[in-house]
Amino acid sequence: MHAQIRRVGTGLVLAFVALFLQLNYVQIFAAERISENPANRLQLIREYSIKRGDILTVDGKTIARSFPTKGLYKYRREYPEGELYGHITGWYSVRYGLDRLERTYHDQLLGESGGLSMQDIEDEFLGAGEQGDDVRTTISSRLQEVARDALGSERGSIIALDPNTGEVRALWSNPSFDPTPLASFDAKEAKKYWTSLNPSSPTSPLVNAATTKGYPPGSTFKVVTTAAALQSGAYKPDTQFPDPQALEPCEGSRERGEACLPLTTEDLTNYTKLPCATGTIDLFDALRVSCDTTFAMIGLDIPGEVFSMAEAVGFNEPIPFDVRTEASQFPDIPDEQAPLRAYAGIGQGDVNATALQMALVAATVARDGVVPQPHLVREVLDARSGRPVRTFDPADLGRAMSEDVAEAVTQMMVAAVENGTGGAAQIPGVSVAGKTGTSQTVQGQNPHTWFIAFAPAADPQLAIAVIVENGGAFGSEATGGAVAAPIAKTVLEADRALREW
Amino acid sequence: MQASLQRNRELSLLILGLIVGGGALALVVAANNAKNIGLATPLITVLAAIYVAAHLVMRRVARNADGMLLPLAAILNGLGLAAVYRLSPEKYGAAQLTWTLVGVACFAGTMLLVRDVQVLGRFKYLLGFTGVALLLLPMVPGIGREISGAQLWVQLGSFRFQPGELSKIFLVVFFAAYLADRKELLSMATRRILGMHVPDLKHFGPLLVMWGLSLAVMFYAKDLGSSLLFFSVFLVMIYLATARIVYVAAGGALFAAGAYIGYRTFGHVRERVLVWLDVFNPDYVQDEGYQLAQSLFALAAGGLFGTGLGQGRPDLIPAAHTDFIFSVLGQELGLLGAAAVLLCFLLLVGRGLKIALAQSNDFAQLLAAGLTVVLGIQTIIILGGVTRLLPLTGITLPFMSYGGSSLISNFILIALLARISHQGASERPAAHTAEILIGGR
Q: Using an 8 Å Cβ cutoff, are A428 and A297 in contact?
């Protein structure tokens, strides 16, 4: 029987070897892959055992915080201001992951960025529990509230930033959402709210419209076209243009030298369906009164320069920012589609811009031609000592236009507010530079209304973009001047009072 | 001289084992309540006292018994106790210490009562009948209890136990005695098929009976682990006795056929297989595959060195204290700790087979090998299950899982092994003396 016992022994040893190999596989070789499985709660439990840092406004209001709970997870996230900062903080949810600042500053909020500090070692010894760092944003709680109230129930976005530093002081999109229910440990409650937000729809409140939703910028884009024209050297503010009520197709009998629209049978008609002036119009007045035919002509004349200027101010690339951005679009139009260049010159056709992009256009002019790098976080603070562990200094994305061009465009934008389409944005005692936009969308739908501005013109403190979708309360009669400009004015005035400029 | 050598080895290894087990206990008590680490003292004292008492019994009644069995059981039991205490000090920790006491008492009781294993052979049919009855007892309406999907409990009043754990010992004794009697008959080959010596068909009768029994356990008690354990142990033992691989081949084919029928007709069998094949499938990772997935997450989190005792989250594994106790240790002691546990089981199996090899009597040899194989296969079935090497079939891990039935039966099992080793070691010097007295053969 000895031989059999030995064979059985060999078999058992082999089985134990197989067990040992399988253990190696599970605990070492495949350990990472296994641990990353979404059904694994160990990772989450570890994360939720850390007191995640707060997210604060620049004026010290807490907009996201963690409080201790009983149960599997030690801390729960809540957002005391509800919807107001949904698009800024994003959410931190067991079920729906994390987004926006919660995502971008996840490591800092968990206190896992950088190395082990003396504070960490001290905490370890005192058994104080792990504590993440606080994130202090650049948002002013007062200005954010003003922006929300100014937009009211209209669908749209407002973004306001300091052009000197790139610090975003207000970022509001309506509709918004309350991140607190998403952070609930009650899976049913979280799911119910998430489903009610219709998350897969492009119009879901979860969409951060201000940074990801592109609209035709319409006449606000004329600021870019103007800058391209001046920068090219081919045009001056007093360059005279013909002033037809419409650009007509080049087919048929035309006088020599008369501007026309090639390769098409459609007119490009002024918004007013009238000539903009009497006889001719210069570039300065064209921007002031937002004359479509003038900028259509520039679009046809210097398409390369307009394209370059659009890219210089940030089009065609996602703008680097603390939350996700979508690239605004300015197409490089080939010769055979030349008429589209005319439409591109007035911000129509295939041109698409986010509110963030258009705010950046205003901020670039305000900052003498340099594109500021927008940012949403001022510093990361050690939660116990309150000392900054990391600060974010102002930076820029390069120069888009010369100081002279920026200065000339500023003058034209000031005229647009003082004596043009943007009259509703006038603030007594302050020189406001602005530009209206009323952009056509799908046939039969009311136009989107835009306003971009900065003030004071001489020493800009705040640059702003306002977009109200589909005309808001004005319906088909809506214009940027009537709908968006007063909203921009309210926010500018509020910031003026807050910061005393 | 030789006798005290084994006992002295036992004592020194026991001290080593108790340091491991006691240290683990101290660590989990500290992790549970850092302010009152003194709580560990009574636990460790009781544990040490239990094993030292068992050692003293061995010194009196089985001086020549193998000196490694008890220390190995003590290490495994100590680590298991620490893991159970770590999961639930109040609910299971204290109870498990009590069961350890009862288990070691049964060990000592077996040592005292069974002075000669040959006596057991005389009661083979009674024991065999008892074993089968115990195995089928949970299926009797009224006293059988189904707990977490398997009907392997018997409830009498407030007292609840798993008779299957005990029945394995009765059945192995019966198999050993039966096969020792019939080994010549059963191994008589009348023809060759596929290179295997094949005995007369009528000798396959016992195989069919065992097959039917194991299928009944699989299908009606839904106890896949026990079913697999009993049948495979029977096959190994018939092979040990007859050296006829054809029994294993035929038995394996029969079992596979049975399991296939089970897969097609019984949800609980199919479920286990599906989970085994694709545990992280989102369709059942939160339901049928949940327990196994948590076990794998726990093991993966442990890595090489583990999280440290009391520092992991093994409580996320449902029923971690019974079938999944190994995953608890795998997470907190890492691959190193898990491999050490494996090694202890392997050593235990090695000692058991060594004892079997040393026997000159067929019954004792088959009994020692059979008991060892039960222990080894049970360990492989459950460890294979919790690491996803094999489909998961709920069964306890000897000496480590929470539960009285399991502890008691495994302590009786090593008591029988110790008794056999004592008898084997005592026979030879005795014969030697006789030779001198009578003047040779």
A: no
